[in-house]
Each structure stands twice: as C-alpha cells, then as structure tokens.
Amino acid sequence: MGAVPTFGAVALDCPDPAALAGFYRELLGWEAAEVKHDGQWATLTNPQGGARLSFQRVEGFRAPAWPSQDSPQQAHLDLDVTDMEAAHERVLKIGAKLLDDSPRTFRVYADPVGHPFCLCAC
C-alpha cells in the first residue's frame, strides 16, 4: 500500500497565502491556517479529516476569468450547503463575488483573488 498515494491537499496559487487562507477559514469554519515562516505557503486542515486546502504565493498571479477560454479557470471548488440563501449572504459578507446565479442547484462565486468556487445545494 505504500506505493499508492493518498489525496493530501488542493493547492491554490495566490498573491498572499495568509490572506486567502483567512477567507477560506472563515468560509469553511475551520481553524486558523498554518503559515510558513517565509509567508510563501499556508495550509488549512480539515477538522473532520480528509484533504487539506493549501495556498502558495505566486509572483505576478493572474486570476482566472470566468467564463473565458482566454484565461480559463483550470479547476474550482464545489462546496455543499443546506441553506443556499444563508450561505449566499455569508460568502458575500466575507468577500466573495457572485459570478453566476442562474442555476437553481448551484451558484458560482469568485474568492477575493478570483478563483471560482460553487455553492451547491445538497
């Protein structure tokens, strides 16, 4: 089994790892991030176990454009919610930007540096 990897983390590029980790900490209700001493990397640990969410500093970071093929999103996070309206108000309050609210079962947002994510009704 040692040769079979386990899923450890999703890492998002960004200009300020501690700041973006703070946004996702607030969004997910997790504990404070572990920030490397040089500020180049921050990690949020899922308190229920499972994969971590990490952030790495990238000089000259360019946010993905949604929807666009000129600067495609590459990947996005799907976050399950049981109360779409309450979750919608909460993510806007902590700094997300609504990108698309036309679907009924999910809504697309951008985090403070432009990474798209979805709130998905479950």
From TrEMBL:
PROSITE patterns: VOC. Pfam families: Glyoxalase_6. This is VOC family protein. Residues 6-122 form the VOC domain. InterPro entries: Glyas_Bleomycin-R_OHBP_Dase, Glyoxalase_6, VOC_core. It comes from Amycolatopsis samaneae.
